[in-house]
Amino acid sequence: MKFISGRPSYSAALPLLVLLSFLFVQGMACSEELASLSGRVTVTPLTVDFPLMSLRIKILATAPIEITSGTFNIIEDDIPISNIIIASAVPRQGLVLLLDRSSSLENSISDIRRSAALFLESLPSDVKTSVISFASDVEINQDFTTVKKELTHAVETIRAWGGTSLYDALYLGIEMLYANTDPRDLRTIVLFTDGKDETPVGNRQMSTRNLSEVITAARKRNVRIISVGMGSLIDEKVLLELTRETHGWYLFAPTSKDLAGLYQKIVQRMRQERHFTVSYLTPNPKKDASKHKIRFSCRFGGNGRDIDLEYEAPLDKYHVDHAVTPASVRNITSSKSASIELPPWPGKSEPASTTSVSEGTKSNQGSGSNMLDLKIRDDSLRRNTPGNSLASESDRGR
Fold first, then answer.
1. What does each C-alpha distance from 314 to 123, 210, 220, 228 come to in angstroms?
2. CA-CA distance, 105 to 89, in Å (whole number)?
3. Which CA distances in Å does 297 have to 55, 63, 124, 138?
4. ∠ at Cα 375 (348, 225), nearest 5°?
5. 35 and 268 in contact (C-beta within 8 Å)?
6. Strand order in the sheet with 79-80
7. Rounded CA gap, 33 and 268, in Å?
8. Is pLDDT above 80 for 17?
């Protein structure tokens, strides 16, 4: 095994103990206010460089992390993977700030604008950000940029009126992230709302999209949703489901005066996330859309579980009987998710929190446990340029 800084190089292996010393230095304790959000490891397999398989690992810990040579093990189609390369890797980030501006927020709109502007100013300077607001309509107030003045000016123009097109706004944010970021990037939506998806008079749903479509799109596009709900009229069940199913988290603000503090907690957590890439060459390198099974094992402190996953190899045009154009070839990876429950950090007792669960599993909301969440992405053709040209995700970022 080998651990390096930056992008992985695939040469002779070094002991994984190098990673242990690095993580010990990088591990940091979170504040008590953030304890409910911490102690999680998220792993996202990527096939954009197939036959090189990459597992993107995101770690947020309340204490230094002890990793040994037996912490992670991978078996693909009953073949143990011995040459695993581990690299520190800080991904580029794309973020959409999604702001409710329905008429119910008229008396709070000043606080909403002020807290949102502070949030945008606090983000790391290299986070590519867009601002979208929604009421009876959905408006792109600012396209993706890293210029803070443009982002804060966009927030200042928001005015309250109309209903709540929550699902349509989320769907647009997901597709915008997909179209404007690389598959290796970390994609995030920060959602603020004080209600549920409904018309101004509250007699029916406002959006043309629905909750199921939003969750399906977020999973397919590998977008996490961080939800901030305010007041007594929110549909907390929907917000919890959105965050749970996309590996995000949920925060509650009793009033608009509490928003600024919650936004700062989000920024603090984002700055504490540590990213690594675990890569290996698949023993099944053919791009023939064949299905393969992975058993991913995780062990922390002698505890952990084995999780069985499945992925579908990308389809190469040369494996198709008839000639096709590159744009008609879809780079497909099937989606299955799983969660590994890890023991609490020694000496730490974390309060209940909303933690990620995978497709087909029940919600596990806190109890002082850590979660290892795995999600295999579904990469397909995407919108690559404003001119509606299409390219597979594997062609991006090269």
1. 35, 30, 15, 37
2. 40
3. 13, 22, 33, 43
4. 75
5. no
6. 79-80, 72-76, 291-300, 303-312
7. 11
8. no
pLDDT at residue 65, rounded to an integer: 61
Residue whose tokens read 């800084």:
5
> How would DSSP label each residue in 348-371?
--PPP------TTS-----SS-EE
Report pLDDT digits (tens) over 23-63: 332 322 222 233 333 346 677 777 788 999 987 878 776 56
Among residues 308, 309, 328, the alpha carbon closest in space to that of 377 is found at: 309
End-to-end C-alpha distance for the chain, whole angstroms? 26
Element at 275 (helix H, strand E): strand 274-281
User: Are 221 and 177 within 8 A, CB to CB?
Assistant: yes
- Mean pLDDT taken over the chain: 74
Q: Which residues contact 139 (CB under 8 A, 6 or more apart)?
A: 132, 133
The type of residue at 326 is P
Domain assignments of the chain as residue spans, ordered by start? 2-91+274-280+305-383, 93-271
With a CB cutoff of 8 Å and minimum separation 6, the contacts of 258 are 230
By C-alpha distance, which of 163, 210, 344, 190 is closest to 264? 190
In degrees, rounded to 5, the angle at the alpha carbon of residue 166 between the alpha carbons of residues 160 and 172 is: 105
Rounded CA-CA distance 398/171 in Å is 27
- Rounded to 5°, the CA angle 103-108-114 comes to 120
Buried b (16+ CB within 10 A) or exposed e, 46-71: bbbebebbbbbbbbbbbbebebeeeb
CA separation for the pair 6, 50 (Å, rounded): 19
Q: Which one-letter DSSP state was computed for residue 125?
A: T
pTM above 0.85, yes or no: no
Pick among 3.30.70.100, 3.40.50.410, 3.40.50.720, 3.40.50.1110: CATH of 93-271:
3.40.50.410
